[in-house]
Design a protein that fits this description.
The protein is mainly α. It has one domain: Alpha-lytic protease prodomain-like (Up-down Bundle). Helices cover 83% and strands 0% of the residues. The protein is built from 7 helices and no strands. α3 packs parallel to α7. The radius of gyration is 18 Å and the shape is elongated. The termini are far apart. Pfam families: Cation_efflux. One of its GO terms (molecular function) is zinc ion transmembrane transporter activity. Keywords: Ion transport, Membrane, Transmembrane, Transmembrane helix, Transport, Zinc, Zinc transport. It is found in: Membrane. It comes from Inhella proteolytica.
């Protein structure tokens, strides 16, 4: 830590560690999306399906963040708003699916949910650790940190849902966790949108002076 403090600070676009962390996050999320979408379909779990969609959203989010590193403020804010809209849309889609499944009565496969949830948690903790130092950056960097944080929380919830499904023999824990993950997505979307609006306002105020 002391050695790091001796270095001249670099901007995010100049920091090779950030680019490596984002490429790592992109690869992990893309892989986990493919795995979880198959596992969710096999297990009949909406929580896993929601988590898989979240991994897809994060993969696109990391790709867009890489694309605008070093770009002007207008481009970065535009991408931040796109990501916020995407996270919000995914959250609404999961809520709609949860409501539709209320009367279906299909019980997911708890062992598959638990095993895949644990693997996803390990993957997301690795990504969160890689991105931790950038959690207080601009709206784009804040959004990637929020994605990884929410994913780790969601994975714990999926594992809890697996225990609930196993213990009750019903789909209610799975649906409840899916709704919780949708709420996290909507909350993150609001936070990123608000941060982008704040940065735009600060830029406009500085330009006026």
């Amino acid at each position: 830590m002391g050695a790091h403090c001796c270095h001249t600070p670099t901007t995010p676009a100049e920091d090779p560690r950030l680019r490596r962390a984002l490429w790592f996050a992109l690869a992990v999320n893309g892989t986990m999306f493919g795995l979880e979408i198959l596992a969710g379909l096999q297990a009949g779990s909406l929580a896993l399906w929601a988590d898989a969609i979240d991994f897809l959203g994060d993969t696109l989010s990391y790709a867009m963040t890489l694309a605008v590193l070093g770009a002007g403020l207008a481009a970065r804010l535009r991408v931040a708003r796109i990501k916020a809209a995407m996270m919000g849309s995914l959250g609404l889609a999961v809520l709609a699916q949860a409501v539709w499944r209320l009367g279906q009565g299909e019980v997911p496969q708890a062992p598959v949910m638990g095993a895949v949830g644990l693997l996803a948690l390990i993957a997301n903790l690795a990504v969160a650790w890689a991105l931790y130092r950038y959690r207080t950056g601009d709206a784009n960097l804040q959004s990637v940190w929020l994605c990884s944080r929410n994913d780790a929380i969601g994975n714990l919830a999926v594992m809890a849902a697996a225990l609930g499904v196993f213990g009750t023999g019903t789909a209610w824990p799975d649906l409840g966790v899916a709704a919780l993950m949708a709420g996290l997505g909507l909350s993150a979307a609001f936070s990123v949108w608000r941060q982008a609006a704040s940065e735009q306002g600060e830029a406009g105020h500085s330009h006026a002076h």
